[in-house]
Amino acid sequence: MLIPLLVLVMFLTSSCSAENWLTNVVMTNSSGQSIHMWTTGETIDPENILDPGESRTKLLETAVDYITTDITLTVSVGMGDQILTSSSFTVGEGECTLNVEYSNGSLVEVE
After folding, report:
1. pTM of the entire structure?
2. For all residues of the chain together, what is the average pLDDT?
């Protein structure tokens, strides 16, 4: 039982700084209307519609080299087929999660 747990801990602690950087992008709709929220590598799609108060998580894998210390990810918000806003966020080395919230027409990173 200890060995599988150790392997899981090693995966979780090394996945942020491996050759392929894994980042969970958590997108939350804190507005009063249904919207699309998507991130790097995605587009407006019926699968990324969020009702008010809903969240979705997208696991992104980004190839990095040994000198990369951070990556930039873009999160966008749209309604229908129109883009309402888009912002880029920097994820530093060792960070595995980016939490982004849409509210009052703005995208902000939340802790």
Report:
1. 0.78
2. 82
Which H/E stretch holds residue 81?
A: none
List the Cα angle 76/74/36 in 5-degree steps.
Answer: 20
The tokens describing 79, both together, are: 């309604």
Domain at 2-109, CATH from 2.60.40, 1.25.40, 2.40.160, 1.10.3470: 2.60.40
Q: How many CB atoms lie within 10 A of CB 40?
A: 16
Instruction: Report how far residue 10's alpha carbon sits from residue 18's, in angstroms, rounded to the nearest whole number.
Output: 11
How far out from the chain centre does Cα 46 lie? 18
Measured CA to CA, the distance from residue 30 to residue 41 in angstroms comes to: 23
